[in-house]
Amino acid sequence: MNFVDEVEIFLKAGDGGDGMSSFRREKFVEFGGPDGGNGGNGGDIIFKADHSINTLMFYRNHKNIHAVNGKNGAKARRTGESARPLYLKVPLGTQIINAENTVVADLLSKDDAFLACQGGHGGAGNACLKNSINKAPKESINGAPGEEGYFFLKLKVLADVGLLGLPNAGKSSFLASFSKAKPKIADYPFTTLTPNLGVVEIGDDGFVVADIPGLIKGAHQGLGLGIQFLKHLERCKMFVHIVDSSKHNLVAQYLEVRNELSVYNPDLLKRPEIVIFNKTDLVTNEEIQDKIHHFEEKTNIQVYQNSKIYKKNSILHIIKDILDSLKSDDTQEIYDPIS
């Protein structure tokens, strides 16, 4: 599986360069005095959100990262060169959690940045330590060590709409039918092993849809593809619940997924949701109408139909209208099981 959405890494900022202890030695210049330069600052380590990166794969093989140290001071009051900051690019939606399990940064937008470890300050040369009492100091000060620590990176997919459903309900086909996303599609469970994103364009506007791998009973305990993908739903503003209408016990299918959301985070149940019966072309019209009537009667939820031959424009506009109504409220609290 190439998708990496959680990784722990160790970071060490650069140490400051040492100050220099030296004295001016020049012909015909008596008592040249101290001329040792200061050390340069060590390099900072800064996380930066980059929209061109989709996973944390790089950090699976680079779990110990060190910034460059500052250069030492030199004679003739020359200051050592300070190291450049080390920028670590991460996908949009990356949370940075410190060793105390505190979320210290949530990089949601392009170019969002967070200073994780500050480089050490350069040490003082003996020229800098000269004063009215000690005019010829022999000592110098070494550079300060750079900050270091372990950090846990967690990626949560950023999308407006999350597709819910049991494995093989047809979520990937639904996503591929109205966006340029190319998810793997096949007639067996767990075809989708990583979240897929698709952009839906409606006129000059649009929204992003995430196809989350199918949930099964016990997903919140790690069964199936487990809790690792449940957290991606926390970023979504609303859900589209896909139900395979060719199966039996459709109410049970629906409630099974809803129960997993409830156990993981009850607040997810408060977000807007529409239910779509998929694969309606595989059953007779009379049968699908009976299933819709039964489902709506038991759940009091309106059902929309979808199949390979069904026009999706109306469904997409319904989703867009719901998202528009949510734009005035961007203060949804994001649940995090770690914090």
TrEMBL record:
Domain Obg: where? 1-158
Which positions bind GTP? 165-172, 190-194, 211-214, 278-281, 307-309
Q: What is this protein called?
A: GTPase Obg
Matches recorded under Gene3D superfamilies: GTP1/OBG domain (2.70.210.12), P-loop containing nucleotide triphosphate hydrolases (3.40.50.300)
SUPFAM superfamilies per UniProt: Obg GTP-binding protein N-terminal domain, P-loop containing nucleoside triphosphate hydrolases
Q: Which cofactor does it need?
A: Mg(2+)
Where is the protein localized? Cytoplasm
Q: Please state the Enzyme Commission number of this protein.
A: 3.6.5.-
Question: What keywords sit in the KW lines?
Answer: Cytoplasm, GTP-binding, Hydrolase, Magnesium, Metal-binding, Nucleotide-binding
Q: What quaternary arrangement does the UniProt entry report?
A: Monomer.
Where is this protein primarily located?
cytoplasm
One of the GO BP terms on file = ribosome biogenesis
Give me the residues that bind Mg(2+), please: S172, T192
Q: Where is the OBG-type G domain?
A: 159-339
The protein's GO terms of the molecular function aspect are: GTP binding; GTPase activity; magnesium ion binding; ribosome binding
Question: HAMAP family from the xrefs?
Answer: GTPase_Obg
Q: So what family is this one in?
A: Belongs to the TRAFAC class OBG-HflX-like GTPase superfamily. OBG GTPase family.
GO-annotated cellular components: cytoplasm
State what this protein does: An essential GTPase which binds GTP, GDP and possibly (p)ppGpp with moderate affinity, with high nucleotide exchange rates and a fairly low GTP hydrolysis rate. Plays a role in control of the cell cycle, stress response, ribosome biogenesis and in those bacteria that undergo differentiation, in morphogenesis control.
UniProt cross-references to CDD domains, sorted A to Z: Obg
Source organism, top-level taxon: Bacteria
Kindly give the PANTHER family that the UniProt entry links to this protein: DEVELOPMENTALLY REGULATED GTP-BINDING PROTEIN-RELATED (PTHR11702), MITOCHONDRIAL RIBOSOME-ASSOCIATED GTPASE 2 (PTHR11702:SF31)
